[in-house]
Amino acid sequence: MDNQPIRDERILHAIEACRPGSDDVADPALEFLAAELDADPQLAELYDRLQQLDSKLAAAFREVPVPEGLEQRLLDRLATAEAASPVSPRPKRVSRRWLLAGSAAVTVAAAVLVAVGIGIPGPDDDGEQAVLDEGIRFFNKESAELGVLLADKAPPSGYPISRAVLRLPEIRWRRIEGFAGRNGVAYDLSRGGVRATLHVVKPQVAGLPTRAPASPMRSTGQRSASAWNEGGVLYVLVVHGDARTYRGFLAPRGPLA
Amino acid sequence: MADEPAEMDIAQLVAEHHRAVYAYAYRLSGSVPDAEDLTQQVFLVAQQKLGQLRKAGSARSWLYTILRNSFLKAQQRRRPLAAASLGLNIDSVPAEVPENEEIDRERLQKAIDELPERFRVVLVMFYFQECSYREIAEELDLPMGTVMSRLARAKGHLRARLFAPEQPQTTKQQPSTAG
């Protein structure tokens, strides 16, 4: 590493901006770099070396082993989502008249909804995917603290364990805050060396099932999760394992879908 | 191919692009479960917005855009960006390009993970997606100078981690949160 110091930050930035094997140096904005390279053999040598190195790094960036079964898991998840909320067909061209009539109808409908005090669904980042993401994130970052044993002290009222999950003799709980902007309680349902957490928070998320799904709504290689509304609260169950393991944490005769 | 109107269904999209999307997600997120979650998220969004895909030839860059947005959005929800202390580091360019030396995959990902998200995204777009600095600037709506600065600092950090084992810490010539 016997590089000569480059005092001009602009030259260094320009060199670093040139992709390996490209003609980026011919970019009009980098004209000054081309001139410098012509005039300075040491700089040209550094440029060539960096291009070779970048070529190797670019190849290394693309070398990522893909988990086995990923494609099938993706297709399964997409099928579940489609079944829950059918994808609308591709939009067709509509006339201006119909557009105007449609927008007027939407405006009227929105006004009626507001007038009768019906809640309007939250933003996109407050939907099913967001709470599943949050459940898995909380699950991944759970501390080693076990929480309070349920038999010793009851959690705050209003955050009960769902009837849909398997009741265990020793369940621990702890408060959670900032769960997709919500507060509540997390119950540690782990048993037999398998981790599982039931997050109970308010308010609910519109559009979720009203019963615990029999199959996880989200399955990665190591996490299975689902979310549902029940009894005025939002439940997010996250289990370390596949769909079969997930089902093992549901009550045998619970209100399964 | 590039001008063909998009008539793909989601299964076809998954079959053709899930490997590339996953690899991109892995480089950004740095973990297998997160990368799989991100990949799933990308195709769920794609399924909902398939009508917006105009050309089959642009499907992959469309998916990458969804991926970057999902990643950055999730990061914003999780925690504030760490302050960057990345100096310009031309010293990290090895005197000789390692000819037969494999770049250690774990060290590479560890070095990427150490970067703040805004640097990481630019780096992955450069190396993985092969975007020019102009394209990165347009996609991320950033000034070109900012992109060039981030690239230079991020690349310097990467080289320092990969090719300078005797230096455990990144050279911090100009501690800065700029860029």
SSE layout and pairings?
The complex is a heterodimer of chains A (257) and B (179).
Chain A: H1 9-17, H2 31-39, H3 41-62, H4 70-84, H5 96-115, H6 128-140, E1 148-149, E2 172-179, E3 182-188, E4 196-202, E5 218-219, E6 223-230, E7 233-240, H7 243-247
Antiparallel strand pairs in A: 1-2, 2-3, 3-4, 4-7, 5-6, 6-7
Chain B: H1 10-29, H2 32-48, H3 59-78, H4 105-113, H5 117-127, H6 133-140, H7 144-163
Reported by name, the CATH topology of the largest domain in chain B is: Arc Repressor Mutant, subunit A
Q: What is the CATH top level name of the largest domain in chain B? A: Mainly Alpha
Quaternary assembly: heterodimer
Q: Give the topology string of chain B: H per helix, E per strand.
A: HHHHHHH
User: Major sheet of chain B, described briefly?
Assistant: none
Helix content, binned percent of chain B: 55-70%
What sort of overall outline of chain B do the alpha carbons produce when their principal axes are compared? globular
State the shape of chain A: elongated
Coarse structural class of chain A: alpha+beta
Low-confidence stretches of chain A: 87-95, 112-124
Strand order of the largest sheet of chain A: 1-2-3-4-7-6-5
The share of residues in extended strands of chain A comes to 15-25%
Which two protein chains have the largest interface (Cβ within 8 Å of the partner's Cβ), and how many residues from each? A-B, 56 and 61 residues
Helix/strand order of chain A: HHHHHHEEEEEEEH
Structural class of chain B: mainly alpha
Task: Count every beta strand of chain A, where a strand is a DSSP E run of 2 or more residues.
Answer: 7
How big a fraction of the residues of chain B is strand? under 5%
Structure description:
The complex is a heterodimer of chains A (257) and B (179). By secondary structure, chain A is α+β, with helices and mostly antiparallel strands. Chain A has 3 domains: 9-62, no CATH class; 94-119; 127-257, no CATH class. Chain A is 36% helix and 16% strand. Chain A contains 7 helices and 7 strands, in the order ααααααβββββββα. Chain A has helices at 9-17, 31-39, 41-62, 70-84, 96-115, 128-140, 243-247; strands at 148-149, 172-179, 182-188, 196-202, 218-219, 223-230, 233-240. Chain A has a 7-stranded antiparallel β-sheet. In chain A, helix 2 crosses helix 3 (41-62). Chain A is elongated and about 80 Å long. The relative contact order of chain B is 0.14. In chain B, 59% of the residues lie in helices and 0% in strands. By secondary structure, chain B is mainly alpha-helical. Chain B is globular and about 50 Å long. In chain B, helix 5 (117-127) crosses helix 7. Chain B has 2 domains: 10-78, RNA polymerase sigma factor, region 2, helix turn helix motif (Rna Polymerase Sigma Factor, Chain: A), CATH 1.10.1740.10; 90-163, Arc Repressor Mutant, subunit A (Orthogonal Bundle). Chains A and B meet through helix 1, helix 3, helix 4 and helix 6 of A and helix 1, helix 2, helix 3, helix 5 and helix 7 of B.
